[in-house]
Design brief:
Strand content: 5-15%
Largest sheet: 7 strands, mixed
Helix content: 55-70%
Radius of gyration: 24 Å
Structural class: alpha+beta
């Protein structure tokens, strides 16, 4: 039976010591985020997922969701009761706006709960998680009437939400969608079409589900410029907020998937369902990106989450399983074999995992802070700087974070050897659940193209220049600690490779667009390596300073310094090869004909 304990000590380290969240208390929304409160929320969130959500992970995977003959869908045993406790405790309201019944805490605190839920039970976490994107879209683009009608109960968790984008014949290219929205005399629209891969499309956790559906109105352009976004509730909502008739939306089937079996991924059929336009007609793409950006950050957290859960189980196994002897001689001569933990190759995988997890947690929480500052920083310049950074790094958090999350899950399964391949031990579930994160909310190749094709060029490259300036300044700071100096030196070299790769794109992108596409993935990975390095430089500085104080938690801070050194010695060197991959261009990638590929 797999285990999980929320990593509250490490989270408090990042939130309090690395981000210094309490220092932003002068900004709106941060006033209540004192250290005492954030520590309490972190610990209580950890306790809740440990006791209520994590025990349902393996059983939920084994049971899955069920579509009944009447079209209704039920979640695995225990999910409904756990969700009732989740909303009763108000966990979904942490970072939601107070005007709609939320607690108004910084997104940093909301991200903590997202990570813990996804580590404990990713399939369960997706039910409230998907509602966040819908809430963001309605908050930004919905009319005051729509906001008043839907947001209070969505924020409270009484109602949940979905995103309906993909159709059987089109995925990323949403300009090809066929779902139609016919205007009605009462101002509503009749929505007709089929959507697939709709996570949490139907379930028994709450009384209503608010679907956000992409569709095209009559005469709309056939490209993505003709997309509109509609609110289509499962049950119609009366003027007084009570529920009315069932809408003409139904579940055609539940997808049979590789993982996340506890989440109902549905084929949704809209048969003239009543819907209401959000924002302007043919302007649904902008509203869609609000949903997508929220979801992409959430998926990046899922990569971190599955890495954490799988790592905890691999560490325990490596401590308990005995096999072979240490290369330097028996570590425990009184035993017939030593624990797996003595073997360098096992430790290599565990150290790679520990370094990634610590760096990625810091990156996700720092990203959440940028979301907060983009709205609440004191000056327009500071708000713009934060928005530039999180816009640039969103595809990196999603793409690199989930690539490494999946790699970590498979490495941790490898630590278990043959026992990791046996389903009852749970390691295969971490691998299966982690794999989807590389695919949905835009496959990672799409994230790479978003980074290189859109984000780099925006505003004359202002965002990436901001990132370079932040890194250059922090690398230039003086330090007496040898590990800090090593990490700063290696980070300076890795960002040098990133600058060179960026310049190469600028020089070749206009004349050879395929070269941009061929190098985009390596560039995204390189940006991920650099971003983790920035986090580890910050954590190394904090840890070195902490160790100079009396009463410091020496084992914790010494481990942080060693992980920072691990990044410098074993991950930073990847930067050079990634840069050269970018500069290889598209000759070999685009060289073969279709017939040659098939030969």
């Amino acid at each position: 039976m797999p285990v999980f304990q929320a990593p509250t000590r490490d989270t408090r380290f990042v939130v309090n010591e690395v981000l210094g969240l309490e220092s932003y208390g002068h900004l709106p929304g941060f006033e209540a985020a004192t250290r005492d409160l954030t520590d309490s929320v972190i610990e209580e969130a950890g306790r809740f997922v440990n006791e209520v959500v994590a025990p349902l992970n393996l059983s939920g995977d084994q049971e899955g969701c069920t579509r009944h003959p009447d079209g209704s869908v039920t979640t695995p045993k225990g999910f409904k009761e756990a969700y009732a406790r989740y909303i009763e405790a108000g966990w979904g309201t942490l970072a939601a706006p107070e005007i709609y019944g939320g607690q108004g805490l910084p997104h940093v605190i909301g991200f903590v709960m997202e990570e813990y839920l996804a580590s404990a039970n990713q399939a369960f976490a997706m039910y409230p998680g998907l509602a966040n994107g819908a809430i963001s879209a309605i908050s930004s683009k919905g009319s005051p009437e729509q906001q008043a009608m839907y947001l209070p109960k969505m924020v409270s968790g009484e109602w949940l939400g979905t995103m309906n984008l993909t159709e059987p014949h089109c995925g990323t290219d949403l300009g090809l969608i066929r779902t139609r929205a016919e205007p009605q005399a009462d101002g509503s629209y009749a929505i007709t079409g089929t959507k697939i891969f709709i996570s949490a499309g139907d379930h028994d956790l709450c009384e209503n589900i608010i679907h956000l559906v992409l569709a095209k109105t009559p005469g709309a352009p056939e490209s993505s410029k003709g997309i509109s976004l509609f609110i289509v509730p499962k049950f119609l909502v009366n003027a007084d907020g009570s529920l009315g008739d069932r809408n003409a939306v139904s579940v055609g089937s539940i997808e049979h998937k590789m993982g996340i079996h506890g989440n109902a991924t549905c084929v949704m059929n809209y048969d003239g369902a009543k819907g209401w336009l959000i924002g302007e007609e043919n302007k649904g793409l902008a509203a869609m990106f609000i949903m997508m950006n929220a979801a992409r950050l959430g998926v990046g957290i899922q990569g971190l989450a599955q890495a954490e859960a799988s790592y905890q189980n691999a560490v325990l196994y490596a401590q308990e399983r005995r096999q072979g002897r240490a290369l330097t001689g028996p570590a425990e001569p009184q035993q017939k074999a030593d624990p797996l933990l003595v073997h360098p190759d096992v430790r290599r995988m565990l150290m790679d995992a520990k370094m990634f997890i610590g760096g990625m947690r810091a990156l996700c929480l720092w990203g959440a802070l940028q979301v907060d500052l983009s709205h609440k920083a004191a000056t327009e310049e500071e708000r713009q700087a934060a928005d530039d950074l999180i816009s640039l790094l969103t595809p990196v958090i999603k793409g690199y974070g989930t690539d490494m999350g999946y790699k970590t899950a498979t490495d941790m399964q490898q630590v278990w050897g043959g026992h990791g391949y046996i389903a009852e031990n749970g390691m295969d579930q971490f691998v299966r659940d982690a794999r989807i994160a590389m695919i949905y909310e835009g496959a990672n190749g799409v994230q790479a193209m978003d980074l290189v094709g859109r984000k780099l060029a925006q505003n004359g490259g202002r965002a990436v220049q901001r990132l370079f300036a932040v890194i250059d300044a922090e690398c230039a700071e003086e330090s007496a600690d040898e590990t800090v100096k090593l990490v700063a030196e290696r980070l300076a070299k890795t960002v040098g490779h990133l600058k060179a790769a960026t310049m190469w794109f600028l020089q070749h992108g206009m004349t050879d667009r395929n070269a941009v596409g061929a190098g985009a993935y390596a560039y995204m990975t390189l940006t991920g390596v650099v971003s983790l390095g920035l986090m580890w430089l910050r954590m190394a500085k904090v840890s070195a300073a902490a160790l100079s104080q009396d009463g410091a938690d020496k084992p914790f801070y010494e481990a942080k310094l060693l992980c920072a050194k691990h990044w410098a010695l074993r991950f930073a060197p990847q930067a050079g090869s990634l840069r050269y991959e970018v500069e290889a261009g598209a000759e070999t990638v685009m060289g073969l004909t279709a017939e040659q590929f098939a030969a």
